[in-house]
């Protein structure tokens, strides 16, 4: 087969592209750099962040707004770039493309994304909801599983879904993700230490010493004193970071509890048995599975390579079309 099968995860912070037979071949920031007027695209992805970092009049625009809303102008340019990069300029054999979208995206928005994908050079274009794609990428047998809950912890939002026999029976979307954890750390340090963190410091603390549960061994990171006005170095402990993230993590747990309250009685035993599967970059936060298990009393596990789950599942779904066609979100 000369036509490629491509799965694309359009995320808040990153764009991942999976090509059947090759794996995830693109993992770049979900950014586009334009000229000052926004009329000309200068760079996309990692090149865009580097271009803006050098100063000048270039400005960046993000692909996804507030975790759910897609900027269609940015999406069209991004898809054009990605598809061209994978299949080349000639595009004699146009690819089959599947994109993941947040479940809350409206029918009008879904149609716009599909049309942008076709205009970017796809032979056929399909959409799949992120929790379903995450389940497939996590190697869950979605068509035969009698009940499992997927928690996809993204940068801008968290989507939670009950999946049984190939269908999403209940869904909860929470506008809280990895970026909200960063903001919570910044706010906490400002309140408790009277210090303003430099850009990127909160994420560094989260990734370096953050945990969803009380750390077993206390550790710390010293942040340098750069910035305006220049400040003295600041040492932050892992306990401080864990406590700073507590409120947004509690909100995610509350959303999970709301979804579990909607589980039909006939599916409760299956969900208790199969548990929760965590995907997305936020699933890599140490202690996340243990935190959710303690809050809802259901065993949770982190999927293999959780950050790539949605992209991989999106591509794999092209070989499992009955799951997608049931939702009628496709154009050929």
Order of helices and strands: EEEEEHEEEHEHEHEEEHHEEHHHEHEHHE
The name of the CATH topology of the largest domain is Nucleotidyltransferase, domain 5
In the sheet with the most strands, the strands line up as 3-2-1-9-10-18
Supply the CATH architecture of the largest domain. 2-Layer Sandwich
Largest sheet: 6 strands, mixed
Number of domains: 3
Mean pLDDT value: 87
CATH superfamily of the largest domain: ATPase, nucleotide binding domain
Specify the structural class.
Answer: alpha+beta
Low-confidence region ranges = none
Provide the β-strand percentage band: 25-35%
The Cα radius of gyration reads 21 Å
Report the span from N to C terminus: 18 Å
CATH class of the largest domain: Alpha Beta
Based on DSSP secondary structure assignment, what is the total number of beta strands?
A: 18
Number of helices in the DSSP assignment: 12
Percent helix range? 25-40%
- Shape label: flat
Short note summarizing the structure:
Helix 2 (72-87) packs parallel to helix 3 (107-119), helix 4 crosses helix 11 and helix 5 (178-193) crosses helix 6. The protein is of the alpha+beta class and 332 residues long.
Structure description:
Helix 2 runs parallel beside helix 3 (107-119), helix 4 (130-137) packs across helix 11 and helix 5 (178-193) crosses helix 6 (201-209). The longest helix has 16 residues, at 72-87. The protein has three domains: 5-129 and 311-331, ATPase, nucleotide binding domain (Nucleotidyltransferase, domain 5, 2-Layer Sandwich), CATH 3.30.420; 134-176 and 256-307, ATPase, nucleotide binding domain (Nucleotidyltransferase, domain 5, 2-Layer Sandwich), CATH 3.30.420; 178-246, Actin, Chain A, domain 4 (Alpha-Beta Complex), CATH 3.90.640. The strands form five sheets. Strands 3-2-1-9-10-18 form a six-stranded mixed beta sheet, with helices on both faces. The relative contact order is 0.16. The protein is of the alpha+beta class and 332 residues long. The protein is flat. The chain has twelve helices and 18 strands. It has helices spanning 46-53, 72-87, 107-119, 130-137, 178-193, 201-209, 238-244, 246-260, 265-274, 288-296, 309-316, 321-325; strands at residues 5-10, 14-19, 23-29, 31-34, 41-44, 59-62, 64-65, 69-70, 96-101, 124-129, 148-153, 158-164, 167-174, 220-223, 234-237, 276-279, 300-302, 330-331.
């Amino acid at each position: 087969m000369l036509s490629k099968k491509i799965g694309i995860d359009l995320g808040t912070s990153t764009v991942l592209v999976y090509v059947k037979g090759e794996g995830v071949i693109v993992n770049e920031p979900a950014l586009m750099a334009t000229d000052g007027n926004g009329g000309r695209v200068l760079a996309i992805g990692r090149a865009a962040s580097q271009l803006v970092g050098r100063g000048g009049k270039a400005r960046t625009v993000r692909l996804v707004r507030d975790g759910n809303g897609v900027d269609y102008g940015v999406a069209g340019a991004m898809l054009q770039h990605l598809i061209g990069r994978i299949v080349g300029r000639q595009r004699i054999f146009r690819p089959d493309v599947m994109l993941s979208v947040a479940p809350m995206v409206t029918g009008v928005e879904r149609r716009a994304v599909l049309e942008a994908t076709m205009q970017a050079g796809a032979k056929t274009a399909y959409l799949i909801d992120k929790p379903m794609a995450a389940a497939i990428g996590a190697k869950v047998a979605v068509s035969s599983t009698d009940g499992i809950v997927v928690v996809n912890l993204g940068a801008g939002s968290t989507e939670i879904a009950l999946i049984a026999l190939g269908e999403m029976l209940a869904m909860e979307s929470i506008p809280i993700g990895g970026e909200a954890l960063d903001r919570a750390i910044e706010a906490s340090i400002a309140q408790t230490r009277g210090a303003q963190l430099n850009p990127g410091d909160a994420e560094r603390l989260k990734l370096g010493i953050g945990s969803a549960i009380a750390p077993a061994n206390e550790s710390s990171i010293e942040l340098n004193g750069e910035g305006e006005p220049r400040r003295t170095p600041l040492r932050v402990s892992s306990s401080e970071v864990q406590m700073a993230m507590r409120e947004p993590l509690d909100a995610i747990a509350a959303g999970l509890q709301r979804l579990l309250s909607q589980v039909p009685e006939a599916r409760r035993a299956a969900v208790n048995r199969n548990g929760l599967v965590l995907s997305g970059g936020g699933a890599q936060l140490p202690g996340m599975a243990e935190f959710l298990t303690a809050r809802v009393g259901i065993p949770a596990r982190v999927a293999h390579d959780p950050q790539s789950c949605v992209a991989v599942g999106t591509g794999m779904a092209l070989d499992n079309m009955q799951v997608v066609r049931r939702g009628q979100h496709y154009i050929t």
